[in-house]
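Record pair follows.
FIRST:
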Amino acid sequence: MYAGIPNLQAAPALPAGKILPCQESLALAPTRPLTLRRGIGWLKFRSVKDVAPALAYLTLPHLVNIASISQLQKSALLVPIPLHYRRQRVRGFNQAEEITRAIHMYTNIPFSNLLARPRATHAQARLPHELRQQNISGAFSITHQVPHKARHLILVDDVTTSGSTLSAAAQALLPTEAQIWGLTVAGG
């Protein structure tokens, strides 16, 4: 059921429903059936924030592939993938942050806006896979130091297809002694 890839940065398009354990790792929830696509669309493009807890709930079984919830409460930090300030101003909120807050609500795993997105990028979904890494490379920066007790940094986003956004965000967090994971509501 799960497959390993030794390096997220070099990872090809990632299949959904897989765990990719390594220093820079990725945990994906299932592929996007129609109802899930609609839920993500409602949150992201129609500002229906009430959908975020339901989407977050779908990620919970995948957290235990990293460590037990009680261990994660003590040693992990949930980190939402940030939007560029202009995109967030237009949208009015960050969907990844809403999902992260809901995961925190369910699990009591701490979260922090550890990353910023100072460089505007094109929407990844509108780009061919081969241009996504180039588009997002260097788009993220770290806002403050990683807490010493954080042994697991869990990057949270709504969807991943190529893994480029999670990879670029992980790159901004390096070097760190913590394991870096990605957790998305959907892949594909």
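SECOND:
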Amino acid sequence: MQVDDTTGGRGALFDFFRARVDTAARDQGAGLEEPTRLYLAGVLTDSAEPGRGPPETTFVELRHDALRAPAGRAHVHWQRLGEAALLVAGVFAESLGRRCVSRSYCTAMGESAYGVLAHTSPATQWRAAFRQLSAEFEACADVLAEVREEPGDDDAAVVRVYGAWRATGSERLAARLRRLGVVAGRGRGFA
């Protein structure tokens, strides 16, 4: 994640994601500090590069690499694990079923990785963000999920959010429906 690159299109893309992350965090009442929001925008910016997406390796392999890395390089592997867990839990949540892992497993991997980074990262300016990512991983992943969805408020978008809510029961999606003027009920559909 490179949050200090403000040149060319990458800077514009970072600014785009930063605005979306700020809005999603505010809408969800996530209470994320600015360094954490900047970090999340940087993760999204990096993931938008061609060839980037969910990792090809498993979380176990990423964790193994972090544990086996030389002391001076371990932080790179912990950060790769944390970012992979964030992206899978937030942006690519639909891939969880294909990966045969649960969101809680993904969350545990992310919390663990960012917990290590909060104490060992040589980038001391990011340690507070890593602490918050570890402590509030699910809220951070939910912010990324909302940035990804960005459905707008047309009828088709509302139906998509409603369908996702019916499939998952996500409180985040229920809150989003309420913001769109829809009260989601557990009965036969719209309340």
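COMMENT: Confidence is low (pLDDT under 50) at residues 2-8, 187-191.
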